[in-house]
Description:
With 389 residues, this protein is an alpha/beta fold.
Amino acid sequence: MNTSSSTSAIVEQKYDDTSTKISSLRNRIIGFSDWLKPLTESKSTPSKVLDLRCTTEQEKRQLRSSSFIPVEYLKERSFELPARHVEFTILVSENDLDKVESLLCGSKNGRQKPWKVAHVLLDTEDFWNEASQNSGMVIVQRQQQQQQQQQQQDKLDNESSIIINNNTSGQRLWQPDPMVENILFPLLVKAKNNDKNNNRIMSSSSSSSNSSEIWDLASGSGRDIAFLAEELYTTNPNTDYKLIAIDHRYNAKETKIVNDFFGRRGVGNQTSSIKLNLSNWTTLEQAMSSSLLNSYVAAMFCVRFWKLELVEAIANSQSISSGVLFGLSHFCKPTEGAPWNFDHPSEKTVLERDQLFNLFQAQWDIVHNEIALDSDHGRMMIHFIARRR
Length: 389
Ligand SMILES: C[S@@+](CC[C@H](N)C(=O)[O-])C[C@H]1O[C@@H](n2cnc3c(N)ncnc32)[C@H](O)[C@@H]1O
């Protein structure tokens, strides 16, 4: 096993190189103990591991706390990868190295940055022997479980494999939007706690048994919905939030991708996806009229999606009840009329600093209105939340 201590230096040098030259993943191969070094030297935690081996190998044995994407699904599930500026380690079979290299590092047209694969762990017996000597904390042995499965009848085998599959989501590698994570999520937790306290002093007949809906308008791959569902239910397993992903791209294929993702994250029952064109409010209002009429809606939000007509109509809508939260995270100039010096997105899709404040102030309380930088390109974003009066 190549455990060269100069690996990090090599990697840094390669990342500094902004040309299209791509360093080979083979140069980044390290052994288990080198990967663990930050922990053993008490400096920091080792970089997160993305396990790209096939499902059969993953079921045999795994590194604790790693995330899994079988290599054959890597392209389809690339939205689950970390942001392109975040370092991570991959665990991979040597046979798949070239394929993985072209998927993670091989942007031939140079338009997309490669993902930041800091280190490569190779799926070899040496690797697992070394790993299993580390006080068991990093290894989950599945061999015994598998041997038992082989001895069981077909029906039982099937049930066991379902259990294994449900457990393969692993830790989250992608980051949710910071507005969703740091501002909206705590407000939703707090709103539910307030509801609980209010319900305690109201008669039980007046408390609603229906769930509160959260709509992600133009949810794309559904990462923010998955994050909210996971975290809201971790914070309170009895919470009744229902998370709804809405996007016009959800044809049958995309719907399957997004619903499978929710299923793998263990939040299939708390989430759903709807195909809808969000160009104007009337379409949304009609599609979701029963939720609006019955006041089930707790919050709606848009991340990196901006349609003036839609947001204007939301701000002025009479069908949105008091207390509903509206959140938006989008590219925004830091001051009124400031220049926009980035190629992407184009200036005409970028918000003016006070645009949302001016739209919402008449009928909504402004809860949060802040300019932040996006983590990878340093572009300005607005994190905005208002509550209907
Ligand atoms: C930049 S992506 C953002 C996705 C997601 N919110 C995120 O931050 O990862 C914009 C999304 O808006 C969706 N979209 C664009 N126009 C739309 C429309 N008129 N109606 C519904 N969805 C739309 C696209 O399909 C895409 O998923």
